Amino acid sequence: MSTTHRSPTIADVAQRAGVSIATVSRVLNGTTPVVPETADRIRGAIEELHYVPRTAARVLASRRTDTIGLLLPEIGEAFFAALLRGIEAEARAAGFDLLIHATTHVLHASVPAARRTLAEHNTDGLVVFTQSIREEELIRLHQINFPVVLLFETPPRSVDIPAILLENRTGAQRLVEHLIDVHGCRRIGFLQGPKGNEDSEGRQAGYKRALKARGIAADPELIGYGGFNEEEASATIQEWLARSIPFDAVFAGDDDAATGVLAALHRAGVRVPQDVRVVGFDDSAVSRFLSPPLTTVRAPIEAVGREAIRQLVRVIRGEPAEPLSLMPTELVIRESCGCQPQPAAPGSKA
């Protein structure tokens, strides 16, 4: 008896959903309205069977798109500009075009298989930024052996997908220890990033590890929400000030949040670094131009983008890829922590 695995067909989908092949075709093509309940049943059958429309299957088998897809939550901040530079340059060098899709408005929507913007039907592989794709879609892509690399996020336990991460814990620990050891800070606030964000979780772990190593108890009142966002971070600092919560330093989580912290403190007449010291993470392009210039942790964002493409190309070509690439970070000392400006080395960004 043959054990050859047969790919599901449109007939299999029709049988599973209890409808005709023509009805399945109408849902796939979106040409004629179908009763919502019936359409949902068909989409469920497509997901259960991992059915790939024939045209998409041909493209997947031939690997002739010469295109890599990038899924991002949004496009616009300086962080993404550096990331895109690395991704685009490395993709071009490897002979691939790049398609980009921002998923903010569709991530939580019910998107049928035939309507996915970037997937196996129009790319040879995907680079997926953290929180840009639903877990069930990630698992589906893995089940059909479609090449995927994750950015700033580890894969679900059930799938084996390469991931590119930052050295968040060590970088954050060094930053907070600098505030404690060099500047004598004891009441250091931390602003969390978006819920479920692994970068934020790693930085918070490094923050707590530094406090514990120096015998300082973590105060829950000094852990607030910054969202990697100027407005959110500013609002939290305003709340702390209104509640008279004492703090002598703020680790803002990232440089965008640090910008909001600096603005909120300035409006309140709180001097930086004389009254409160402020530090960030990423070393974005604007961090050295803030007032005062921002002490931060340099994350090699452009190099992250390049490494993601290198690993994805290996998967596309059937070569072994690194399960986890941990990119190193570097402490960058400027004036917002209270240090005197350091002379920049030739060719450096500091």
Structure report:
The chain has 350 residues and is an alpha/beta fold. Among the domains are: 1-51, 434 Repressor (Amino-terminal Domain) (Orthogonal Bundle), CATH 1.10.260; 168-299, Response regulator (Rossmann fold). It is 40% helix and 14% strand. The strands form three sheets. Strands 2-1-3-4-5-11 form a six-stranded parallel sheet, with helices on both faces. A four-stranded parallel sheet has the order 7-6-8-9, with helices on both faces. The chain has a two-stranded antiparallel sheet with strand order 10-12. Strand 6, helix 8 and strand 7 form a beta-alpha-beta unit.
List the helices and strands and how they pair.
Layout: H1 10-17, H2 21-29, H3 36-49, H4 54-62, E1 67-72, H5 78-93, E2 97-102, E3 125-129, H6 135-143, E4 148-151, E5 163-166, H7 168-183, E6 188-192, H8 198-213, E7 223-225, H9 230-242, E8 249-251, H10 255-267, E9 277-279, E10 296-298, H11 301-316, E11 324-327, E12 330-332
Helix pairs in contact: 1-2, 1-3, 5-11, 7-8, 9-10
Overall spatial form: elongated
The whole-angstrom Rg is: 24 Å
Unreliable spans are 107-115
Look at the structure and name the CATH superfamily of the domain at 168-299: Response regulator
First and last CA, distance = 68 Å
The description of the largest β-sheet is:
6 strands, parallel
Secondary-structure element series: HHHHEHEEHEEHEHEHEHEEHEE
